[in-house]
Amino acid sequence: MLAVGTVVATILVLTGCTTAPLDNGGASSSATSRLRSGPSTATLDGPAVVPIANDPVPALPATADSVATGSHPAGKVTVTDTSRIVAVDRNGTLGNIVFSLGLGSRVVGRDMSTTFPQAATLPLVTNRGHSLNAEATLALNPSVVLIDSQTIPPQAVEQIRSSGIPVVAFSSTRTIESTPALIASVATALGVPDVGAKLVTRTKSQIDAMRAALPSPTGDPRMAFLYIRGPRLILLAGPNSGADNLVAALGGQDAGTASGLTGAFTAVNAEALANANPDVILVMSQGADSVGGIDGVLKLPGLSDTNAGKARRIVSMDETEILSFGPDVGRVLQALAKSIYQ
User: Is residue 54 part of a domain?
Assistant: First the structure.
Protein backbone atom coordinates (compact mmCIF):
# COMPACT_ATOMS: atom_id res chain seq x y z
CA MET A 1 0.00 0.00 0.00
CA LEU A 2 1.37 3.44 -0.87
CA ALA A 3 -1.07 5.57 0.89
CA VAL A 4 -0.93 6.55 4.53
CA GLY A 5 0.88 8.93 6.81
CA THR A 6 4.64 8.97 6.77
CA VAL A 7 4.84 6.44 3.96
CA VAL A 8 4.79 9.47 1.67
CA ALA A 9 8.30 10.35 2.78
CA THR A 10 9.41 6.80 2.14
CA ILE A 11 8.05 6.94 -1.41
CA LEU A 12 10.04 10.07 -2.11
CA VAL A 13 13.24 8.43 -0.86
CA LEU A 14 12.88 4.91 -2.19
CA THR A 15 11.31 5.53 -5.58
CA GLY A 16 13.41 8.45 -6.70
CA CYS A 17 10.68 11.06 -6.78
CA THR A 18 11.68 14.14 -8.76
CA THR A 19 10.14 17.40 -9.86
CA ALA A 20 11.48 17.30 -13.40
CA PRO A 21 9.25 19.00 -16.00
CA LEU A 22 7.36 16.88 -18.47
CA ASP A 23 7.85 17.54 -22.15
CA ASN A 24 5.60 15.25 -24.14
CA GLY A 25 2.16 16.61 -24.88
CA GLY A 26 1.12 14.04 -27.45
CA ALA A 27 -2.45 12.90 -26.86
CA SER A 28 -4.01 9.62 -27.87
CA SER A 29 -7.48 10.92 -28.67
CA SER A 30 -7.97 8.27 -31.38
CA ALA A 31 -8.17 5.69 -28.60
CA THR A 32 -11.07 7.35 -26.77
CA SER A 33 -13.76 5.64 -28.84
CA ARG A 34 -12.95 2.43 -26.97
CA LEU A 35 -13.07 4.04 -23.55
CA ARG A 36 -15.90 4.60 -21.12
CA SER A 37 -16.72 8.17 -20.20
CA GLY A 38 -17.39 9.36 -16.69
CA PRO A 39 -15.95 8.26 -13.34
CA SER A 40 -15.91 4.65 -12.23
CA THR A 41 -14.88 2.61 -9.20
CA ALA A 42 -13.19 -0.71 -9.94
CA THR A 43 -14.15 -3.44 -7.49
CA LEU A 44 -13.19 -7.08 -7.29
CA ASP A 45 -15.74 -9.65 -8.36
CA GLY A 46 -16.23 -11.65 -5.17
CA PRO A 47 -14.24 -11.73 -1.90
CA ALA A 48 -10.92 -9.93 -1.68
CA VAL A 49 -9.14 -13.23 -0.95
CA VAL A 50 -10.29 -16.63 -2.22
CA PRO A 51 -8.21 -19.49 -0.70
CA ILE A 52 -7.10 -22.16 -3.16
CA ALA A 53 -7.17 -24.80 -0.40
CA ASN A 54 -8.69 -25.30 3.03
CA ASP A 55 -5.98 -25.30 5.73
CA PRO A 56 -3.49 -27.55 3.91
CA VAL A 57 -1.02 -29.52 6.02
CA PRO A 58 2.54 -28.24 5.48
CA ALA A 59 5.36 -30.71 4.82
CA LEU A 60 8.02 -29.64 7.30
CA PRO A 61 10.83 -28.91 7.75
CA ALA A 62 10.95 -26.70 4.66
CA THR A 63 14.05 -25.01 3.29
CA ALA A 64 13.53 -21.55 1.84
CA ASP A 65 15.71 -19.14 -0.10
CA SER A 66 15.92 -15.83 1.75
CA VAL A 67 17.12 -12.69 -0.05
CA ALA A 68 19.54 -10.19 1.45
CA THR A 69 18.18 -7.55 3.83
CA GLY A 70 20.29 -4.67 5.06
CA SER A 71 23.69 -6.12 5.98
CA HIS A 72 22.26 -9.62 6.32
CA PRO A 73 23.29 -11.80 3.37
CA ALA A 74 21.07 -14.00 1.27
CA GLY A 75 20.94 -17.63 2.33
CA LYS A 76 18.87 -20.66 3.21
CA VAL A 77 16.37 -20.62 6.07
CA THR A 78 14.85 -23.74 7.60
CA VAL A 79 11.22 -23.48 8.70
CA THR A 80 10.08 -26.15 11.15
CA ASP A 81 6.81 -24.68 12.40
CA THR A 82 4.13 -22.69 10.54
CA SER A 83 1.53 -22.63 13.32
CA ARG A 84 2.03 -18.89 14.03
CA ILE A 85 2.87 -16.82 10.95
CA VAL A 86 3.59 -13.09 10.76
CA ALA A 87 3.67 -11.73 7.17
CA VAL A 88 4.85 -8.16 6.53
CA ASP A 89 5.51 -6.04 3.44
CA ARG A 90 4.59 -2.59 2.18
CA ASN A 91 2.00 -3.79 -0.35
CA GLY A 92 0.29 -6.40 1.83
CA THR A 93 1.20 -8.99 -0.81
CA LEU A 94 2.74 -11.57 1.52
CA GLY A 95 -0.29 -11.66 3.80
CA ASN A 96 -2.55 -11.99 0.78
CA ILE A 97 -0.50 -14.94 -0.49
CA VAL A 98 -0.58 -16.75 2.86
CA PHE A 99 -4.35 -16.43 3.10
CA SER A 100 -4.77 -17.40 -0.55
CA LEU A 101 -2.77 -20.58 0.12
CA GLY A 102 -5.40 -21.48 2.71
CA LEU A 103 -3.12 -20.85 5.70
CA GLY A 104 -4.92 -17.77 6.99
CA SER A 105 -5.93 -19.48 10.25
CA ARG A 106 -2.22 -19.67 11.14
CA VAL A 107 -1.52 -15.93 10.71
CA VAL A 108 -1.16 -14.09 14.03
CA GLY A 109 0.09 -10.65 12.93
CA ARG A 110 -0.22 -8.35 9.93
CA ASP A 111 1.07 -5.14 8.35
CA MET A 112 -0.99 -2.00 7.72
CA SER A 113 -1.65 -2.94 4.11
CA THR A 114 -3.20 -6.31 4.94
CA THR A 115 -6.72 -5.06 5.54
CA PHE A 116 -8.97 -7.50 3.67
CA PRO A 117 -11.82 -8.74 5.90
CA GLN A 118 -10.29 -12.13 6.78
CA ALA A 119 -7.21 -10.41 8.25
CA ALA A 120 -8.50 -7.02 9.39
CA THR A 121 -8.85 -7.94 13.07
CA LEU A 122 -5.34 -9.37 13.45
CA PRO A 123 -2.82 -7.43 15.58
CA LEU A 124 -0.71 -4.88 13.74
CA VAL A 125 3.08 -5.17 13.85
CA THR A 126 3.85 -2.15 11.63
CA ASN A 127 3.17 1.56 12.03
CA ARG A 128 1.99 4.22 9.59
CA GLY A 129 5.47 4.42 8.13
CA HIS A 130 5.35 0.68 7.45
CA SER A 131 8.16 0.17 9.97
CA LEU A 132 8.26 -3.22 11.66
CA ASN A 133 7.91 -3.17 15.44
CA ALA A 134 10.11 -5.95 16.82
CA GLU A 135 8.55 -5.93 20.28
CA ALA A 136 5.01 -6.16 18.91
CA THR A 137 6.08 -9.01 16.65
CA LEU A 138 7.88 -10.98 19.36
CA ALA A 139 4.91 -10.54 21.71
CA LEU A 140 2.87 -12.66 19.29
CA ASN A 141 5.30 -15.57 19.72
CA PRO A 142 5.55 -16.23 15.96
CA SER A 143 6.97 -19.49 14.64
CA VAL A 144 8.06 -17.84 11.37
CA VAL A 145 8.19 -14.26 10.08
CA LEU A 146 7.88 -13.41 6.40
CA ILE A 147 9.25 -10.05 5.18
CA ASP A 148 10.58 -8.53 1.97
CA SER A 149 13.95 -6.97 1.17
CA GLN A 150 12.70 -3.45 1.93
CA THR A 151 11.23 -4.17 5.36
CA ILE A 152 12.51 -1.54 7.79
CA PRO A 153 14.15 -0.86 10.14
CA PRO A 154 16.90 -3.48 9.70
CA GLN A 155 17.55 -3.39 13.44
CA ALA A 156 14.04 -4.72 14.11
CA VAL A 157 14.51 -7.52 11.61
CA GLU A 158 17.84 -8.49 13.21
CA GLN A 159 16.29 -8.38 16.69
CA ILE A 160 13.70 -10.93 15.59
CA ARG A 161 16.36 -13.09 13.91
CA SER A 162 18.55 -13.02 17.01
CA SER A 163 15.65 -14.32 19.08
CA GLY A 164 15.86 -17.57 17.13
CA ILE A 165 12.70 -17.13 15.09
CA PRO A 166 13.14 -18.03 11.39
CA VAL A 167 12.86 -14.93 9.20
CA VAL A 168 12.38 -15.49 5.48
CA ALA A 169 12.91 -12.46 3.23
CA PHE A 170 11.49 -12.29 -0.29
CA SER A 171 12.08 -9.94 -3.20
CA SER A 172 10.36 -6.56 -2.94
CA THR A 173 9.74 -6.45 -6.69
CA ARG A 174 6.01 -6.21 -7.34
CA THR A 175 4.99 -6.72 -10.96
CA ILE A 176 2.52 -8.91 -12.79
CA GLU A 177 5.38 -10.98 -14.16
CA SER A 178 7.03 -11.49 -10.75
CA THR A 179 3.84 -12.56 -8.97
CA PRO A 180 3.91 -16.29 -9.86
CA ALA A 181 7.50 -16.70 -8.64
CA LEU A 182 6.70 -14.88 -5.40
CA ILE A 183 3.70 -17.12 -4.77
CA ALA A 184 5.82 -20.22 -5.38
CA SER A 185 8.58 -18.97 -3.05
CA VAL A 186 6.18 -18.26 -0.19
CA ALA A 187 4.47 -21.61 -0.65
CA THR A 188 7.81 -23.42 -0.58
CA ALA A 189 8.87 -21.61 2.60
CA LEU A 190 5.63 -22.65 4.32
CA GLY A 191 5.86 -26.26 3.21
CA VAL A 192 2.97 -26.26 0.74
CA PRO A 193 4.67 -26.10 -2.70
CA ASP A 194 1.94 -28.16 -4.41
CA VAL A 195 -0.73 -25.76 -3.16
CA GLY A 196 1.44 -22.90 -4.37
CA ALA A 197 1.58 -24.44 -7.83
CA LYS A 198 -2.22 -24.59 -7.95
CA LEU A 199 -2.44 -20.95 -6.86
CA VAL A 200 0.07 -19.93 -9.54
CA THR A 201 -2.00 -21.74 -12.18
CA ARG A 202 -5.18 -19.98 -11.06
CA THR A 203 -3.48 -16.59 -10.99
CA LYS A 204 -2.02 -17.01 -14.48
CA SER A 205 -5.41 -18.16 -15.76
CA GLN A 206 -7.09 -15.04 -14.41
CA ILE A 207 -4.42 -12.81 -15.97
CA ASP A 208 -4.83 -14.59 -19.32
CA ALA A 209 -8.62 -14.21 -19.12
CA MET A 210 -8.27 -10.47 -18.62
CA ARG A 211 -5.92 -10.11 -21.58
CA ALA A 212 -8.27 -12.11 -23.80
CA ALA A 213 -11.15 -9.82 -22.84
CA LEU A 214 -9.35 -6.57 -23.72
CA PRO A 215 -10.47 -4.76 -26.89
CA SER A 216 -8.29 -5.70 -29.84
CA PRO A 217 -6.69 -3.37 -30.56
CA THR A 218 -7.00 -1.30 -27.41
CA GLY A 219 -5.92 1.88 -29.19
CA ASP A 220 -3.05 2.35 -26.72
CA PRO A 221 -4.83 4.92 -24.55
CA ARG A 222 -2.57 7.03 -22.40
CA MET A 223 -3.19 6.24 -18.71
CA ALA A 224 -1.85 8.19 -15.76
CA PHE A 225 -1.63 6.84 -12.24
CA LEU A 226 -1.89 9.72 -9.77
CA TYR A 227 -0.85 9.27 -6.16
CA ILE A 228 -2.86 11.87 -4.25
CA ARG A 229 -2.67 12.81 -0.60
CA GLY A 230 -4.51 16.08 -0.33
CA PRO A 231 -4.38 18.98 -2.82
CA ARG A 232 -0.72 19.72 -2.11
CA LEU A 233 0.65 16.25 -2.78
CA ILE A 234 0.08 15.04 -6.33
CA LEU A 235 2.58 12.53 -7.69
CA LEU A 236 2.51 11.14 -11.21
CA ALA A 237 3.73 7.56 -11.55
CA GLY A 238 6.46 6.77 -14.04
CA PRO A 239 8.98 4.03 -14.80
CA ASN A 240 9.44 1.26 -12.21
CA SER A 241 6.54 2.49 -10.11
CA GLY A 242 4.47 -0.65 -10.56
CA ALA A 243 1.75 1.47 -12.11
CA ASP A 244 3.58 1.42 -15.44
CA ASN A 245 3.47 -2.38 -15.37
CA LEU A 246 -0.25 -2.28 -14.57
CA VAL A 247 -0.99 0.13 -17.40
CA ALA A 248 0.96 -1.94 -19.93
CA ALA A 249 -1.04 -5.03 -18.98
CA LEU A 250 -4.24 -3.05 -19.51
CA GLY A 251 -3.21 -2.24 -23.06
CA GLY A 252 -2.28 1.37 -22.46
CA GLN A 253 0.68 3.73 -22.47
CA ASP A 254 1.92 4.95 -19.11
CA ALA A 255 1.50 8.72 -19.30
CA GLY A 256 4.33 9.42 -16.90
CA THR A 257 6.82 7.26 -18.75
CA ALA A 258 5.68 8.53 -22.15
CA SER A 259 6.13 12.09 -20.89
CA GLY A 260 9.77 11.50 -20.06
CA LEU A 261 9.69 10.90 -16.31
CA THR A 262 12.80 9.28 -14.87
CA GLY A 263 11.56 8.81 -11.29
CA ALA A 264 8.98 6.28 -10.17
CA PHE A 265 6.85 9.05 -8.65
CA THR A 266 7.23 12.69 -9.63
CA ALA A 267 5.60 15.78 -8.14
CA VAL A 268 3.75 17.55 -10.95
CA ASN A 269 2.17 20.96 -11.42
CA ALA A 270 -0.81 22.02 -13.52
CA GLU A 271 1.24 22.58 -16.69
CA ALA A 272 3.01 19.22 -16.44
CA LEU A 273 -0.24 17.35 -15.87
CA ALA A 274 -1.90 19.09 -18.81
CA ASN A 275 1.09 18.32 -21.02
CA ALA A 276 1.00 14.65 -20.04
CA ASN A 277 -2.61 14.69 -21.25
CA PRO A 278 -3.80 11.22 -20.20
CA ASP A 279 -6.96 9.71 -21.64
CA VAL A 280 -7.59 7.82 -18.39
CA ILE A 281 -6.57 8.66 -14.83
CA LEU A 282 -6.18 5.92 -12.23
CA VAL A 283 -6.29 6.83 -8.54
CA MET A 284 -6.52 5.12 -5.19
CA SER A 285 -9.99 5.58 -3.70
CA GLN A 286 -8.49 6.84 -0.45
CA GLY A 287 -6.44 9.40 -2.40
CA ALA A 288 -9.54 10.66 -4.13
CA ASP A 289 -11.28 10.92 -0.77
CA SER A 290 -8.44 13.12 0.50
CA VAL A 291 -9.43 15.85 -1.99
CA GLY A 292 -13.19 15.45 -1.73
CA GLY A 293 -13.86 12.49 -4.00
CA ILE A 294 -13.93 12.31 -7.78
CA ASP A 295 -15.23 15.87 -8.09
CA GLY A 296 -12.23 16.99 -6.05
CA VAL A 297 -9.86 15.06 -8.31
CA LEU A 298 -11.38 16.74 -11.35
CA LYS A 299 -10.68 20.14 -9.77
CA LEU A 300 -6.94 19.47 -9.36
CA PRO A 301 -4.85 22.04 -11.27
CA GLY A 302 -4.37 21.14 -14.93
CA LEU A 303 -6.54 18.05 -14.87
CA SER A 304 -9.56 19.66 -16.51
CA ASP A 305 -7.41 20.40 -19.59
CA THR A 306 -6.61 16.73 -20.17
CA ASN A 307 -8.58 14.29 -22.30
CA ALA A 308 -9.37 12.36 -19.12
CA GLY A 309 -10.60 15.47 -17.34
CA LYS A 310 -12.82 16.56 -20.21
CA ALA A 311 -14.48 13.13 -20.25
CA ARG A 312 -14.46 12.85 -16.41
CA ARG A 313 -12.66 9.57 -17.01
CA ILE A 314 -11.35 8.86 -13.50
CA VAL A 315 -11.05 5.24 -12.36
CA SER A 316 -10.58 4.66 -8.64
CA MET A 317 -9.74 1.48 -6.76
CA ASP A 318 -8.96 0.63 -3.16
CA GLU A 319 -5.32 1.28 -2.28
CA THR A 320 -4.89 -2.21 -0.79
CA GLU A 321 -5.76 -3.81 -4.14
CA ILE A 322 -4.64 -1.68 -7.06
CA LEU A 323 -0.87 -2.09 -6.65
CA SER A 324 -0.70 -5.16 -4.42
CA PHE A 325 0.34 -7.58 -7.23
CA GLY A 326 -0.75 -10.61 -5.23
CA PRO A 327 -2.64 -13.78 -6.21
CA ASP A 328 -5.66 -11.63 -7.12
CA VAL A 329 -3.77 -9.47 -9.62
CA GLY A 330 -5.71 -11.01 -12.51
CA ARG A 331 -8.98 -10.07 -10.84
CA VAL A 332 -7.66 -6.56 -10.16
CA LEU A 333 -6.82 -6.20 -13.85
CA GLN A 334 -10.23 -7.53 -14.85
CA ALA A 335 -11.97 -4.99 -12.61
CA LEU A 336 -9.90 -2.12 -13.96
CA ALA A 337 -10.43 -3.19 -17.57
CA LYS A 338 -14.21 -3.25 -17.06
CA SER A 339 -14.05 0.29 -15.70
CA ILE A 340 -11.81 1.58 -18.49
CA TYR A 341 -13.16 0.04 -21.69
CA GLN A 342 -16.65 -0.09 -23.18
Answer: no
Q: Alpha-carbon distance 176 to 163, whole Å?
A: 35
Provide the domain count of the chain.
Answer: 2
Q: What is the mean pLDDT of residues 214-225?
A: 95
Residue type, 297: V
What is the rounded CA–CA span in Å between residue 42 and residue 334? 9
Q: How far apart are CA 36 and CA 93, in angstroms?
A: 30
Look at residues 299, 250, 239 and name the one whose alpha carbon lies nearest to residue 279. Answer: 250
- Over 80: is that where the pLDDT of 13 sits? no
161-193 pLDDT, tens digit per residue, is 999 999 999 999 999 999 999 999 999 999 999
Q: What single-letter amino acid sits at 274?
A: A
**Distance separating alpha carbons of residues 103 and 52, to the nearest angstrom:** 10
Element (H, E) at 209: helix 193-213
Model pLDDT for residues 259-317, shown as the tens digit of each residue: 999 999 999 889 889 889 999 999 999 999 999 999 999 999 999 999 999 999 999 99
CA 245-211-331 angle, 5° bins: 75
Same domain, yes or no, for 70 and 186?
yes
**Do residue 247 and residue 151 come from a single domain?**
no
Is 201 a member of any domain?
no
CA–CA dist 17, 40 (Å, integer): 28
Stated pTM of the model: 0.89
DSSP-derived secondary structure letter, 226: E
Q: Please indicate, yes or no, whether residues 177 and 255 belong to a single structural domain of this protein.
A: no
Buried b (16+ CB within 10 A) or exposed e, 26-47: ebbeebbebbbeebbebbbeee
Question: What is the amino acid identity at position 107?
Answer: V
Phi, psi of 108 (to 5 degrees): -115, -10
Give the relative orientation of helices 179-189 and 93-100 as an angle to the nearest 10 degrees: 60
Nearest CA to 249 among 287, 286, 203, 295?
203
User: What residue numbers bound the domain in which 18 lies?
Assistant: 7-43+217-340
User: Which residue, 67, 72, 146, is CA-closest to 111?
Assistant: 146
